[in-house]
Protein 1
Amino acid sequence: MAAPKKPTPKKPTTASKPKPASKKTTRSFGEKVKWFFIKACLWFFGVSIASVVFFKYVPVPFTPLMIIRAIENKTGGKEVYFDHDWEPIDKISMNLQKAVIASEDGTFLIHNGFDFKALQKAYKSNERGRRIRGGSTISQQTAKNVFLWQGKSYLRKGLEAYFTVLIEIIWGKERIMEVYLNSIEMGDGVYGAYAATEHWYRRDASSLTPMQAAGIAAILPNPRKFKATGSSSYINRRKERIVREMRAVGKINYNAK
């Protein structure tokens, strides 16, 4: 008969050691906001730079202003008229290029996007309560027309300065002028040199005379109010002044500084 097995003595139980606390840390609200802001800035810079590079080579099909004007006319019960066709700069009259430089930005060919003297004059003029005037360059106007909305907020002006620097660096003067002359409002529902010359003079954009080019440039402060043909005495005086100043512009060299 087999001897009975002795009971195996139980090992003394020891209290289980607590597991080390997880090293996973939770971000505070402030840190989350910080990271969101950093990611948003990186996303904005990436998209904005990519957009500027893209439109260096591709025609701008439409601008925010074109959409805004169409909505305004639609909600106002007006006819929604839209005329815009892209025209390469070598097919746009040199007279029109000189006319917009003479009327809008006399230092366009030599500044780096901003005319600080013009801004100072505009500030002083507005401060004295005179008729409000702007000091925006063609580069600034192009940046605003293509990438931004209308308005006078500090945010928009800051973004305008940012995009102005980008297009000056990436596009260069000739491309800025080309986009400007193809995107700017030149009549009610009329955008760009091709549509404007057809609308006002029934002719090709490459064949504008100095006076005709001056007529288009003269209405740019308010192209929905003024007319390039059958103009008021005020616009006729502007035309004559612009033609005189066009002679001072001389030969345009977009690569010179």
Protein 2
Amino acid sequence: MGKPKIIIVGGGFAGCAASVAAAKAGAEVLLLERTDMLIAGGIRAGRMNFNGKLVAAEEAKALGGGEIFESLESIILHRGNIVDELHGYIYNTAIAEPVVRRAVEKAGVKLNTCVRITGVKKDSRRIVAVIAEDGSRYSGDAFIDATGTFGGVAVCKKWGKGCVMCAGFRCMTFGDRVSVATKAGAEEFMRYRPDGTPGVMGAAITIHKSSLNSTLKNKLEQEGAVSVPLPAGLIDYSKQQKIGGIRSRKQMEFINIVDIGVSAKCVGIGYLTLDDLRTVPGLEEAIIEDPLGGGLYNNINKVSMSPRDDGLLAKGFENLFLAGEKAGPGTGIAEVLVTGALSGYNSVRKALGMDPLVLPSGTAIGDFIAFTGEMMELPGGLKEGYSFAHGTYFERMKSMNLYNPDPNAAYARIKGLGLSGILEKRLV
């Protein structure tokens, strides 16, 4: 056959990584994004490579799937950590979207923005086409669902406190997120909070940097990250079970602020009323920038995951792959980028009649994909998210000797397994 055609729905970090990988493998790639910008929540993220995320990034580069990681490394604003994190950096969120967009376009990906996919055409176990809200039809040989797990207005209203007007998703303007896999009939999993409420809350709020007092602002811009002890009455450990990000108990005792360029990001706080926020030293005149409802609540996410195998092929389908948070309870940029790159490469393999690549458990990425896949279908396995940086999976990394912050160790591991550069191998 000639070049296979790969259709990717969702232009967040996972979709971007998938599109680049599929294009490098020789496919004709179309990336469809609901809004007018790429990287979704990445426009207010900023933090990379802390703790075990560094290992994932270096493995991805050794495998040949590191373009988006390298794009973000080209715009490092600071190197800085909070409380119990190591070797992290902060990229400049003000220019991250155009930088990543250039990487996608350089790979030869065709990008269509402002396209909201609302329907799926399938023939038995094969996806034939996806259908846009305006009736446009996009046919392909293989498809990747990178639509994420944020709920949209309906979900935030039902299981939150309504739309909080977050900057990355803008459902009020571009419409709610729609899951391709769910539309096609795939099983849909959610995370649940301890009280049984579906979904978890967004973990961060951002503050206008100019609203910090001059001492805190100057320190933040010099050091990149600052941790300020919270007044005792504002420490709320229960937020660990409510927010989507994974944070240590120790981190909950501070307001952890990072300089992401356009604003100051308060990591893992979930929400804090403006009156309470202004009792923190240095934040007496703080103004919340995103989400606009972040003083009372945050967005709802982790409401739409689907089962897949370790090659990221959706279970029950012949040509539908899953990427990013859609592929399981992985939480964070590194986590979605590595699944994106593998799904992109595997979509081309499948379209050519080849078996998808399954990364071995001797790699952190392969083990993470297998572990989170198991957790998704295990009773109680979705009680938490999983990250290379904190919690259950980070402890697993260490116990399996997969955590080594020396980049040379990741390259040596990949080389020893005969996998160096495999994700940049041209298949067509």
Protein 3
Amino acid sequence: MESWTIKLPSSLSARVTRLAKRRRVSRSVLVREALELLASSEAHEETFVERVSQYVGVGVGLPADLSTNKKHLKGYGK
């Protein structure tokens, strides 16, 4: 296992120490778990297309030129 040295603000260090004592694990275990959680959540971030995929095709049956044909924009913004 690789060893790292990091610098933490004293307030964060105290919080990590308290949480480690409460959970009865070492600070190293706690930090490894936090980094693992962060890494796994980043790997599962959705792209914009994935987030809006439920809305794709909602406008079925509308004119294909809805946003470019000026007659469809008549009264828009009033």
